[in-house]
């Protein structure tokens, strides 16, 4: 699954790392949007039903948990991406 941007594509670009690889987002994106826009998933279901893209998208569940170096576990849907962030999918 890849998130396709339809609007607001002129915002400044922000570089971060995702699982040790270079990635790019747009200023103002949440980590969830940034991860999905990089053509990947947030996590793999522990119940064997494949890739997950988040559940509630508003910070009410734990489905989009990621590890951010220096910040610990964060909800990707509620955490703005910042330049230089090191993000590890759980």
Give a topology summary.
Blueprint: E1 13-18, E2 21-26, H1 31-37, E3 43-44, E4 51-52, E5 65-68, E6 72-75, E7 86-89
Parallel strand pairs: 1-7
Antiparallel strand pairs: 1-2, 3-4, 5-6, 5-7
Give me a quick take on this structure.
This protein is mainly beta and about 90 residues long. About 10% of the residues lie in helices and about 30% in strands.
What does this structure look like?
The protein is mainly beta and 90 residues long. The protein has one domain (13-89): Ubiquitin-like (UB roll) (Roll). Helices cover 8% and strands 31% of the residues. The chain is built from one helix and seven strands; from the N terminus they run E-E-H-E-E-E-E-E. It has one helix spanning 31-37; strands at residues 13-18, 21-26, 43-44, 51-52, 65-68, 72-75, 86-89. The strands form two sheets. A five-stranded mixed beta sheet has the order 2-1-7-5-6, covered by helices on one side. The relative contact order is 0.25. The mean pLDDT is 87.
Give the tally of structural domains.
1
Provide the spatial order of strands within the biggest beta sheet: 2-1-7-5-6
CATH class: Alpha Beta
Shape: globular
Count of strand segments:
7
Q: Remind me, CATH topology? A: Ubiquitin-like (UB roll)
The biggest sheet, with number of strands, parallel, antiparallel or mixed sense and barrel status, is: 5 strands, mixed
Q: Please mark out the parts with pLDDT under 50 across 5 or more consecutive residues, or reply none.
A: none
Spatial extent as radius of gyration: 12 Å
Level-2 CATH architecture: Roll
- Helicity level: under 10%
What number is the mean pLDDT?
A: 87
What is the N-to-C order of secondary-structure elements (H for helix, E for strand)? EEHEEEEE
Secondary-structure-derived class:
mainly beta
What portion of the residues fall into strands of 2 or more residues?
25-35%
Distance between the termini: 18 Å
Number of helices: 1
């Amino acid at each position: 699954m890849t998130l396709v941007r339809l609007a607001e594509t002129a915002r400044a670009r922000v570089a971060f790392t995702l699982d040790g690889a270079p990635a790019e987002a747009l200023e103002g994106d949440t980590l969830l949007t940034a991860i999905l826009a990089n053509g990947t998933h947030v996590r793999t279901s522990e119940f064997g039903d494949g890739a997950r893209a988040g559940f509630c998208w508003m910070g009410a569940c734990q489905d989009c948990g990621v590890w951010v170096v220096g910040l610990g576990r964060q909800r990707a849907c509620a955490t703005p991406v910042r330049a230089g962030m090191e993000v590890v999918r759980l």
